[in-house]
Predict the 3D structure of the following.
Amino acid sequence: MRQFLDFEKPVAELETKIDELRQMGRREDGFGLDGLNIDEEIARLSDKADKQLRLVYGKLTPLQKVQVARHAQRPHALDYINRLMTDFTPLAGDRVFGDDQAMVGGLARFRGQAVVVLGTERGSDTESRLKHNFGMARPEGYRKAQRLMNLAARFGLPVLSFVDTAGAWPGIDAEARGQAEAIARSIDVSLQLSVPVIATVIGEGGSGGAIAIAAADRVFMLEHAIYSVISPEAAASILWRDAKLAPAAAEALKLTAQDLKKFGLIDAIVPEPVGGAQRQPEVVIKTVGDVIEANLPELLALSSQSLIEKRRERYLAMTRAK
C-alpha cells in the first residue's frame, strides 16, 4: 500500500477514490450501482490526480524535500545494488571489531565492469530497519568501507557508493570505539584512492556519515534527495531551541540537490518521476545506472595520479570563495 506524506493529502484523497472504484463490483454493461460509468470516472479522477501531483511536486519547500528524501518506500541502497549489479558478493567485517550491517558492500559487476560497491542501507520494514540500524553506521561500518575501498585500489576496481543515511550512529558504544576517527579515516582513504569513485545520494545524505563514502570524483544526487551537515530538526533545536522551526532551518541549510548543484558541490541531479522515486523505483534505479555508466569511462581513462590530483583539487576548490 502506498504511503502518503502530509502535503500529499489532496492526491491521497483522489487516489483512494480511484482504488475504491477499481474494487467496486461492475455490472456487465460497465456501470456502477448508481449508473456511474466506472472506467470514465477512473480516467477523469486519474487525470485530476496526475495534475494535482504535478502541482504539488512542482513547488516543494526544502522541508518537504526532506520528507520525500526520507520516504520509507523510496528504493534503498540494496535495491540499487541488487538491480544494477550482477555477481554481487557481499563482504562482511572490518577485521578489527565486527560487522556493521548499516554499511553494506562487496564485489560485483556493473554492466560488465568489475567494481566494488558500497552503500548505507536503511531497511524497508521494522525487522530490516532494526537489522541495518536505520542506515546509521557504527565505526566498524566505516572501517569496513575503508577495507573495501583499499581492496578496490589493490585490484584496480572503481568504487560505486550509494548514500542514504541520517548520519553516523551517535550512541555511546560508537563513540567509545572511535566514531570520529573512523569517519575521518574513511574520507582520507576515499581522497587517496587510485581508482575512480562515483557516489550517488539516493535519499538522505546526513553529515559525516554520508561524506565518509561520498568523497568522490563524481557525486550525483536524486532530484528530491538532500545532503546536509545536520538535519533541519537538529539545527532548529540547537540554534533556536525549537524543533518547530525546522522549516526555517531547512531553508537556511541549502540542502536540496538544486542548491548543491548551484554551489558546485555536486556534479549532476538525477531526475525522479513526478511524485518521487517511491512511485516508480525501477525507472529511477535504471536512470541512476545510466548516469553512472555515462560517467565511468571518462574516469577509467585517467591515470591513478591524475585521479588523485583532480580529486584533491576538486575538494580544495570548494573551500575557496567564489
